[in-house]
Amino acid sequence: MRILLLPLLAATPALGMAQQVVAGGGGHHADATTAISYTIGEPVIATVSAGASTLTQGFHQPWADIGTLVDNVQDDGPAINVYPNPVRHTLHIAIDDAARAQHYFLHDAAGRLVTDGRIGATITELDMEPYASGSYVLRVLGSDNATMKSFKISVTH
Fold first, then answer.
1. Is the pLDDT assigned to residue 52 strictly greater than 70?
2. What is the pLDDT of residue 114?
3. pLDDT, tens digit (0-9, with 9 covering 90-100), for 56-89
């Protein structure tokens, strides 16, 4: 009897431990009768509970729906367009009223100033070949040095 009881007592703590998932992706689906969450390769997850509150830390958070709301700004300024985007060689900055726009500034993804210049015509060409592939921000400034419009530019070589 002691021989049977000893292995049973040794296995009891293992039965009380929950499974831990190591995942890096996954998803969640729910309908009127069922719900399923799945994970793939998550590196870190921890859950802490206190009373009715539960905090789950990690990448698999099926309940989290995070969004950002950006208002559309109505402005009476000139129409400004950049093309092509993504760009390989030459970026065109087209402004219907070039007299109101004075400068442009191009920043890399880290926020460093890459180049700047003056806008002197309705279409200004910017040579993008010297710059590495990646994301840039182009700011067009007016005569009062205020930003008239900003664009996210993708350079692909």
1. yes
2. 94
3. 665 544 444 555 555 555 566 678 899 999 999 9
Give whole-number Cα distances, 137 to 12, 76, 77, in Å: 59, 22, 20
More confident residue, 3 or 21: 3
Answer yes or no: are the C-beta atoms of 31 and 22 closer than 8 Å: no
Is there a single domain that holds both residue 53 and residue 94? no
148 lies in the same domain as 87: yes
> Is residue 68 in some structural domain?
no
Angle, CA of 77, 80 and 84, to the nearest 5°: 170
Burial (CB count <10 Å: 0-12, 13-18, 19+), residue 61 = middle
Residue 92 in any domain: the answer is yes
Q: Which CATH number belongs to the domain containing residue 88 in this structure?
A: 2.60.40.1220
Dist. CA 111–CA 136, nearest whole Å: 8
Q: State which residues form the domain around 134.
A: 80-155
Tokens at 100, concatenated:
């109101």
In a domain, 63, yes or no: no
147, 100 contact by CB (below 8 A): no
Distance in angstroms (rounded) separating the CA atoms of residues 90 and 111: 21
